[in-house]
């Protein structure tokens, strides 16, 4: 509960989050220039995009969609170089070793911010890197099977979990200090329930576990389980966000259920080394921010529930989001007793 | 089912692009499987980014076809060079390579062609009938506790194959399990054994390990022979086995189809376990046990029938549960996700046409092994004519690229060459390099599912063993283990002369 | 001691030091995991304990039966290098052959694939006994050409580009060439 109080005081993120309209967003491209001259012929060959995750997951897919959109827009090819492992740290280290000439870009998620919060010697995405665009921002939910009869909504779920005396289970992906683990800690602290978290690092077994009744609930972001929602296999019983997004109008938020913590968001974006030549960075910013407006990219984001809240941050917006996230995680880690370096 | 199959066939061969992709997959799988140093996994990893531009059915079909023909292709290098194209081809080398040394490469390859085709086709037929009902059953009956029990059983079986004593068999597997703990722990993501190297947080992948232990260490062994003037080029022969020779092994074929199919269903370890079990069962039922490992045709037959029989079976957990049965099916999950699809029970409802195009393609790919395989193999065998000092750098380079492509880490190339040196030193000391590789593959799956299983049963062994599948598999594994320990201690199995 | 030889003891000592090193390093990550009773060390330490038991079994077996293989084992890899033929020169060759690939692999990060590979191929060919310069260069060019053609031009595979100049610039040059060639078709 102490953590909760500390957090409710930190309203930095709240301002950023509530800035997003939660009604269905009418799309308007924020970058007006439809073209931009290449600075001194840059780029005259394919860019390399290092993706610190495998090709199949959320990062791999958004990297593919963004690379395609940039190529459609500019005609410049992007070779994706997947370097998964170490919760994204291996790819980031490899990226920092590449020359800062603008030909190498990086995809990364909020894990980079939380890793920096825990250990400030790690790359700071707002300082060591320049965010070109953040193109996906999303929230988490808790899901149960649609045909579940032991509980049907959040209050009955909490009551049932409490009655199990710690034997109820929830599937998530829960490396130490991750967004998932921290959020679950907020939830269990706020409700006073005890639930066994079971960590699945791959999506399919995680969803299979809920589908097959191996676990009682699932912690996930809506875009990743869209198929199961559309097919009526899963249903959300809690949204961890400050307002109800229109697409989930009948699902209560954690705030409404009496939990006052600030939600931690999942975000994915694209970066370039801060030491890259300024004119090249400007061109890359234009290319990635404008590519966000391409039809193919918007269609992709829509299919992933990434349009139900505002997913777009330009360089300045991204820096604000990253800085807020870092300080929020740092507070949480200190309260959790983790060693913050 | 028959109607669906016809519909799948029509969709497959009614579209010129699909036909082109099918042919590309058949030839590409065979070629990459059969070129020493690269494997179907290399091709799959390279092709993955390109599938985004294909229709979902075409993309998945391409990889399914590569899987069928690549599994067969991997046998060629196992037989000719002692370099299995994938872990599921490892037991093929046990007898296939000695046959090559004896100048019987043609017979071994001929048997591999025929048995791969038979095993694969039978498996494709079983897959078509069984996938949907099995999917329904498995999803609620197989969870992490059961998968751990399967891994335990698989390891118990694996340790009884390879290594010249059970002790060395187990030491090999345990070494593999320890190597698998390098990287992040599966529950808390805590870095383990990175020895100050940040890249080690990614762990040791099994593709470079396979390439190092099999391909690179074999090159080292041959290079040593050459340096000591003991190198004998393998003898080329295209003398294929006669029908009578193959017919004599009909029971082995049927047994391997059954063993291969049922092992193949197991997620994570399917095809590899299938090949080891197929081989192990052949030994167990044989009257000439001692001839296995010295170039016995039945060894090649049982292993190659079993691993191709596993190809169809491995599609069951993949399509039904989204659980890949091995390295290549794991890449297929990525293909699905590239197209915004999740392999799993929903695919049957959302895209039945995709399923049946894939099923039909796998059926025809297996049939085509028989025809194209025989022609292609005669060409591939000519590789044996290339002088070793030209072939070796080519294999080392292809292996380096194959190791690097999967994760884009130079570390993987270092690991591969390191594994090559370790394999070079260990293989002459009676250890089993196949055992080490299996330990690496199963270690991560085993630990993760053990942790999840224990969390689910709240660390209560009684609850764990009250799950019927867990009980059966753990008991079966324990019996296998006890039998092999008894054998190890019994004087009759330990001759007093030096081997 | 039975049939234990010095080689057996040496072999056991290597395994024992492997176990000792891994056990000692397990204290580096010996932290509790809130949601998992056995923590990050439970599994690796359990494997190490079993390994010690099996190692003792192996020693016992060797003391009873020497290096003899058990009857009924399958899949034993046999190698038949005759130790008697070893000369200082041939041993030096094989040691160089084992170490060369490691040097190549380490060089990939700073130097990159495009610059390091031709040298590696040429060295391997020479180590394997080819001394005719024309052949060495010709075959090196052929293999390098095939690899570049297949992986860079046709498949666009992302290969290590190196990080230091002038090697990184050379990789950039190769990729530009590749781009121009691809755009012609």
Describe this structure as you would to a colleague:
- The complex is a heterotrimer of chains A (341), B (499) and C (185).
- Helices cover 38% and strands 17% of the residues of chain A.
- With 341 residues, chain A is an alpha/beta fold.
- Chain A has two domains: 2-138 and 265-336, 3-Layer(aba) Sandwich (D-Maltodextrin-Binding Protein, domain 2), CATH 3.40.190.150; 140-248, D-Maltodextrin-Binding Protein, domain 2 (3-Layer(aba) Sandwich), CATH 3.40.190.
- In chain A, α1 (2-9) runs antiparallel to α12 and α3 (58-74) runs antiparallel to α11.
- Chain A starts with a helix and ends in a 5-residue tail after the last helix.
- Chain B has 499 residues and is an all-alpha fold.
- Chain B has one domain (2-233, 241-489).
- Chain B contains 21 helices and two strands.
- In chain B, a hairpin with a 6-residue loop joins β1 (183-184) and β2 (191-192).
- The longest helix of chain B is centred in the N-terminal third of the chain and has 37 residues, at 105-141.
- The termini of chain B are far apart.
- The relative contact order of chain B is 0.19.
- Chain C has 185 residues and is an all-alpha fold.
- Chain C has two domains: 6-65; 86-184, no CATH class.
- Chain C has six helices and no strands.
- At the B-C interface, α5, α8, β2, α9 and α12 of B face α1, α2, α3, α4 and α5 of C.
Main beta sheet of chain B: strand number and arrangement? 2 strands, antiparallel
The beta-strand count of chain A equals: 10
Q: Which two chains touch over the largest interface? A: B-C, 96 and 81 residues
Largest sheet of chain A: 5 strands, mixed
N-to-C CA distance of chain A: 24 Å
CATH superfamily of the largest domain in chain A: Bordetella uptake gene, domain 1
Helix-strand pattern of chain A: HHEHEHEHEEHEHEHEHEEHHH
Report the order of strands and helices of chain B: HHHHHHHHEEHHHHHHHHHHHHH
Our Rg estimate of chain A from Cα atoms comes to: 20 Å
Number of domains of chain A: 2
Query: How helical, in percent, are the residues of chain A?
Result: 25-40%
Taking strands numbered 1, 2, ... along the chain, how are they ordered across the largest sheet of chain A?
2-1-3-10-4
What percent strand of chain A?
15-25%
Task: Note the total helix count of chain B.
Answer: 21
């Amino acid at each position: 509960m102490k953590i909760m109080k500390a957090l409710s005081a930190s309203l930095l993120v709240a301002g950023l989050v509530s800035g997003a309209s939660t009604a269905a967003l009418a799309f308007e491209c924020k970058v007006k220039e439809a073209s931009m001259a290449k600075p001194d012929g840059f780029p005259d060959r394919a860019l390399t995009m290092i993706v610190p995750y495998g090709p199949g997951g959320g990062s791999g897919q958004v990297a593919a969609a963004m690379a395609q959109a940039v190529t459609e827009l500019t005609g410049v090819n992007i070779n994706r170089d997947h370097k998964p492992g170490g919760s994204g740290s291996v790819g980031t280290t490899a990226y920092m070793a590449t020359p800062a000439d603008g030909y190498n870009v990086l995809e990364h998620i909020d894990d980079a911010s939380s890793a920096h919060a825990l250990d400030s010697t790690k790359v700071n995405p707002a300082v060591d890197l320049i965010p070109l665009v953040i193109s996906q921002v999303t929230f988490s939910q808790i899901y149960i099977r649609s045909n579940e009869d032991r509980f049907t909504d959040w209050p009955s779920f909490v009551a049932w979990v409490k009655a199990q005396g710690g034997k109820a289970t929830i599937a998530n992906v829960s490396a130490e200090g991750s967004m998932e683990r921290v959020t679950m800690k907020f939830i269990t602290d706020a409700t006073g329930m005890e639930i066994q978290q079971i960590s699945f690092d791959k999506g399919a077994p995680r969803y299979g576990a809920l589908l097959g009744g191996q676990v009682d609930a699932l912690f996930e972001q809506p875009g990743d389980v869209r198929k199961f929602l559309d097919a009526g296999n899963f249903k959300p019983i809690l949204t961890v966000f400050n307002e109800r997004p229109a697409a989930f109008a009948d699902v209560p938020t954690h705030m409404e259920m009496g939990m006052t913590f600030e939600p931690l968001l999942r975000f994915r974006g694209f970066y370039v080394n801060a030491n890259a030549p300024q004119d090249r960075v400007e061109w890359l910013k234009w290319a990635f921010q404008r590519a966000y407006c391409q039809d193919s990219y918007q269609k992709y984001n829509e299919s992933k529930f990434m349009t139900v809240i505002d997913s777009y941050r330009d360089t300045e917006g991204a820096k604000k989001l990253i800085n807020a996230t870092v300080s929020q995680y740092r507070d949480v880690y200190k309260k959790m007793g983790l060693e913050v370096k | 089912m028959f109607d669906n199959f016809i519909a799948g066939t029509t969709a497959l061969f009614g579209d010129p692009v699909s036909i082109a992709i099918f042919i590309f997959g058949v030839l590409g799988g065979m070629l990459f499987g059969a070129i020493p140093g690269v494997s179907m996994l290399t091709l799959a990893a390279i092709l993955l980014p390109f599938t985004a531009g294909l229709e979902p059915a075409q993309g998945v079909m391409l990889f399914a076809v590569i899987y069928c023909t690549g599994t067969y292709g991997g046998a060629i290098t196992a037989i000719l060079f002692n370099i299995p194209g994938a872990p599921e081809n490892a037991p093929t080398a046990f007898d296939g390579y000695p046959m090559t040394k004896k100048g019987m490469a043609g017979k071994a390859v001929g048997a591999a062609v025929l048995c791969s085709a038979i095993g694969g086709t039978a498996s494709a037929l079983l897959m078509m009938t069984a996938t949907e009902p099995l999917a329904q059953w498995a999803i609620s009956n197989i969870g992490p506790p059961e998968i751990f029990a399967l891994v335990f059983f698989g390891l118990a079986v694996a340790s009884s194959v390879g290594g010249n004593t059970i002790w060395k068999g187990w030491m090999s597997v345990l070494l593999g399990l320890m190597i698998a703990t390098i990287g992040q722990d599966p529950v808390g993501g805590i870095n383990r054994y990175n020895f100050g190297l940040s890249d080690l947080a990614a762990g040791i992948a099994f593709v470079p390990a396979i390439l190092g232990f099999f391909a690179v260490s074999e090159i080292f062994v041959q290079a040593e022979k050459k340096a000591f003037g003991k190198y004998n080029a393998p003898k080329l022969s295209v003398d294929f086995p006669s029908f009578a020779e193959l017919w004599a092994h009909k029971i082995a074929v049927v047994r391997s189809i059954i063993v291969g199919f049922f092992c193949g269903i197991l997620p994570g370890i399917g095809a590899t376990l299938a090949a080891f079990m197929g081989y192990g069962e052949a030994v167990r039922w044989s009257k000439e046990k001692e001839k296995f490992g010295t170039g016995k045709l039945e060894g090649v037959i049982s292993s190659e029938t079993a691993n191709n029989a596993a190809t169809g079976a491995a599609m069951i957990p993949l399509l039904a549960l989204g659980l890949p049965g091995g390295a290549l099916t794991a890449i297929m999950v990525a293909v699905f996700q590239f197209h915004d699809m999740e392999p799993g029970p929903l695919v049957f409802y959302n895209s039945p046409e995709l399923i049946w195009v894939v099923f039909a393609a796998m059926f025809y790919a297996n049939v085509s092994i028989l025809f194209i395989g025989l022609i292609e193999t005669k060409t591939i065998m000519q590789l044996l004519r290339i002088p070793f000092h030209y072939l070796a750098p080519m294999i080392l380079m292809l292996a380096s690229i194959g190791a690097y492509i999967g994760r884009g880490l130079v570390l993987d190339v270092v690991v591969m060459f390191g594994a090559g040196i370790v394999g070079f030193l260990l293989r002459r000391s009676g250890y089993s390099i196949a055992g080490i590789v299996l330990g690496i593959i199963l270690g991560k799956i085993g630990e993760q599912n053990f942790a999840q299983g224990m969390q689910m049963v709240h660390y209560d062994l009684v609850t764990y063993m009250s799950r019927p599948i867990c009980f059966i598999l753990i008991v079966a594994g324990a019996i296998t283990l006890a039998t092999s320990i008894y054998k190890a201690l019994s004087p009759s199995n330990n001759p007093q002369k030096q081997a | 001691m039975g049939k234990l030889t010095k080689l057996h003891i040496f072999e056991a000592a290597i395994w024992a030091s492997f176990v000792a090193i891994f056990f000692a390093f397990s204290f580096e990550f010996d932290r509790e995991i809130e949601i998992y009773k056995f923590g990050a060390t439970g599994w690796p330490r359990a494997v190490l304990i079993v390994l010690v038991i099996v190692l003792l079994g192996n020693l016992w077996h060797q003391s009873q039966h020497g290096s003899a293989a058990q009857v009924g084992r399958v899949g034993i890899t046999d190698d038949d290098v005759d130790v008697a033929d070893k000369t200082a020169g041939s041993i030096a060759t094989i040691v160089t052959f084992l170490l060369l690939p490691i040097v190549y692999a380490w060089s990939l990060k700073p130097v990159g694939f495009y610059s390091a590979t031709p040298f590696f191929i040429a060295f391997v060919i020479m180590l394997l006994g080819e001394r005719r310069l024309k052949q060495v260069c010709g075959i090196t060019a052929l293999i390098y050409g095939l690899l570049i053609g297949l992986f860079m031009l046709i498949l666009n595979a992302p290969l290590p580009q190196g990080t230091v100049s002038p090697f990184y610039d050379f990789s950039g040059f190769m990729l530009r060439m590749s781009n121009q060639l691809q755009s012609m078709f």
